[in-house]
Specification:
alpha/beta, 2 domains, eight-stranded mixed β-sheet, 48% helix, binds 2-acetamido-2-deoxy-beta-D-glucopyranose, AB_hydrolase_fold, palmitoyl-(protein) hydrolase activity
Length: 366
């Protein structure tokens, strides 16, 4: 809640000042009337003028302050509008486990750079495959917990034959702390650090996936100089250009476009960051998304700096359930296959496409 206490203190001090000016200008007003009544003349008229403008200024300043304090409260409310770890109810105490979905898993607790303990599920392929399989790092949206994404993980696990690291942000599920923009970015880096600390995972094929808010987290991770070399490719789904843009869409207040960025506590400025992307990137856009306008995905795709980028439009895809549409996993498989072919083409001119095909030709959506 940083920022609120000093702000309210400033507001209080300003209010007290204004009250004083108000009182004094009122006094001056009365004196003026008396002077004018008794003596008349230009001197009293001038004084009267100053007193009246003083009153007017006071009034305007009070109004402005009132609005500012309202915005100050809004600034604080932004967190609770954006981060919804309590929805649906019990999300902070009950996190479904992968074994319910017949997925083998390890429950991981790791410490972030700023000392917060976050939880993750590591869902590994069978022993003979887990070393060679790619690993998807999954960043979920702004509500619920990682356990609510397990059905989607079943599909990824079986269709793409990948390991999955499901990340629980701080303040979500059983992870410690409370969510914030910087905090979520820090959690993302902790997830990659964790993967790199494990020797039983192929570090050269780490796929970063983010849906909705998770997309903004994934993009931030993929442009960090110290992490870009650790990520093989990026997949974002139904994510937004920025939080200020989303505020305009959700609130529909035209006045918002005149608000400076510092008004927003959480910014998630993906539309700026995508320009710095250099790794292969897939944008999955559900065209039936009524929360995040699909034009935002198109804008992100257009601004993306990577030469290997692809946008996948899924006409029936809604905000949360685009992954349930037929063809979803197959399209991801094709994207990954292309990433492989190209990385092979770069490092080794003998194109071993036959071995590649065998891995992802039998993708059937579940
Ligand atoms: C890891 O992936 C790379 C790229 O596909 C591959 O060349 C390498 O052999 C893999 N390592 C292991 C241990 O399978
Ligand atoms: C999407 O999922 C979130 C969290 O599970 C929920 O709060 C939201 O209402 C869902 N939106 C739609 C359009 O289903």
């Amino acid at each position: 809640m940083g920022g609120y206490v000093p702000f309210s203190r400033i507001t209080a001090v300003l209010f007290r000042m204004i009250l004083k000016v108000w009182a004094y200008s009122g006094l001056v007003l009365i004196v003026c009337f008396l002077l004018y009544y008794m003596y008349g003349g230009i001197f009293a008229v001038l004084l009267l003028f100053f007193a009246v403008t003083g009153k007017l200024c006071c009034y305007m300043m009070t109004q402005t302050l009132y609005k500012m304090s309202f915005l100050g409260i809004l600034y604080q409310v932004q967190d609770s509008l954006l981060f919804n770890p309590e929805l649906p109810s019990h999300s902070r105490v009950y996190v479904p486990i992968p074994s319910t979905f017949n997925l083998p898993y390890e429950s991981i607790v790791t410490k972030t750079a700023d000392g917060i303990q976050i939880n993750m599920y590591l869902i590994l392929q069978q022993k003979d495959r887990q070393h060679t399989a790619p690993t998807i790092v999954f960043f979920h949206g702004n509500a619920g917990n990682m356990g609510h994404r397990l059905q989607n993980c079943v599909g990824l696990y079986h269709n793409l034959q990948c390991n999955i690291l499901l990340v629980e942000y701080r303040g979500y599920g059983l992870s410690e702390g409370s969510p914030s923009e910087e905090g979520l970015y820090t959690d993302a880096r902790a997830a990659i650090d964790y993967l790199y600390a494990r020797s039983d995972i192929n570090h050269s094929e780490v796929i970063v996936f983010g849906r909705s808010l998770g997309g903004a987290v994934a993009i931030d991770l993929a442009i960090r100089p110290e992490y870009v070399g650790k990520v093989w490719c990026l997949i974002v789904e139904n994510t937004f250009t920025s939080i200020p843009d989303m505020a305009k869409v959700l609130l529909g207040w035209r006045i918002l476009q005149y608000f400076p960025l510092f008004f927003y506590k959480n910014k998630f400025l993906s539309y700026q960051k995508v320009k710095q992307l250099r790794i292969p990137t897939l944008f999955i856009s559900g065209l039936a998304d009524i929360l995040v306008p699909p034009r935002m995905m198109l804008e992100l795709y257009n601004r993306c700096g990577s030469i290997r980028k692809q946008i996948l439009h899924i006409p029936a895809g809604t905000h949360n359930e685009t992954w349930q549409i037929q063809g979803y996993y197959h399209s991801i498989a094709v994207f990954l296959q292309n990433c492989r072919l190209k990385s092979f083409a770069e490092s080794d001119k003998r194109c071993e496409s036959d071995t590649l095909k065998s891995m992802w030709t039998n993708v059937q959506d579940v």
